[in-house]
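hi!! sorry for the late reply, been swamped w classes. u asked for the two structures so here they r. pasted raw, havent cleaned anything up. first the sequence of the first protein and right below it the tokens
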Amino acid sequence: MSDPVLELSGIEKSYNPGTPGEVSVLRGVNLALAPGEVVALVAPSGAGKSTLLHIAGLLDVPDAGRVRLAGQEMQGSAQTARTLARRDMIGFIYQFHHLLPEFSAQENVELPQLAAGVPRGEARSRAAELLGLVGVGARANHRPAELSGGEQQRVAFCRALANAPKLLLADEPTGNLDPETSDTVFDVLMGLVRSTGMSALIATHNMALAERMDRAVRLDAGSLEQV
């Protein structure tokens, strides 16, 4: 059997530890994502889902517990190794697109590839292919301010997938869109994820969207449970 793409074991995280204001956010969280599995992370506001995603994405370090990516032990790894793992294995999507405003849609999707050492011509072709898949190929030369909210988020999806990651982490990826646009853009996201066979952990408060994934887990009071 293949190793889980993501494996979190006994993850603990507190803020302001050792002070009267200490807040325990994660309490012994365990989670494993199989190759190609899409899991919804459901949580009320302030429950710690962003913290969990940041730990899974190697942007934050837990107080205790282990993080493994594709069988590789990441806890205790040097910062350089963690940075390379983020670049090569993980794609991030946030509620707000965070596109670079001075660059076109095409350039925003090319940039992470160039940072990974992909030749410019190959990066250009990959970006054009992805933008075409999500229906914004004709808008490739437009800057973010010239795109609608739904178009901007589609470009953000393409940027996250540009380096063909093994794991996609998404934090309320359609949360800033109106319901109709949200459904359309989510369809695009799921199409991309399914077609590439990557694993994904997608945080959402929308149970209708969560039900369209392989399974859902709920984070509440610092603990994770199956929905």
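now the second protein. again sequence first, tokens right under
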Amino acid sequence: MKLAPGARRYALPPLVAAVPLAVVSPPLGALALALGGFVVHFFRDPERSPPPRGVVSPADGRVSVVREEGDRVRIGVFMNVTDVHVLRAPRAGAVQSLTHRPGAHRPAFSKDSDRNERVDVAFDTCECSMIAGWFARRIHPYVSTGDEVARGDRIGHIAFGSRADVLLPSTYDRADLLVAEGDPVRAGETAVALHADEPSNN
């Protein structure tokens, strides 16, 4: 099973501690082993296959935000601790900039999470935001300015619970949306919007 970067850093301490703890206190050893197993599961990084057309979800989870911002539409996805936390490119394009914005660490499902620490990735075709939650304080982008990505490519991950947004181009409106708040989505596989003039594999 492929794992996201950082898995060893978080998983090894409880897994190593499980051995001596099992001798001293079997329940504590089992707890440490379970914790290490949870961390490994959390950092899993499965392969994904994008559909032929459409803007794909940047994250696993449920749609928590659908709103208009001027002439653009934002779709936010809340990731539970049980979801895969590797983020993927909603569309093919070139990375124009990465902007780190310090902020609070409110629960990622709350309205106040818009003020949380985040990394905004501006592509030439859309924008994607990686937003930290109350417990997740480690945002790890995989891309740099100038990188070219295909739709569904890995672009980063956030450790332990968070939110990811895609800000659609101004040519999209609510009529182009394929999801609503509360819908489950999968990163790189679920199409969240489709424009009538959009070519395949874009």
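hope this helps!! also noticed smth abt the second:
The longest helix spans residues 7-24.
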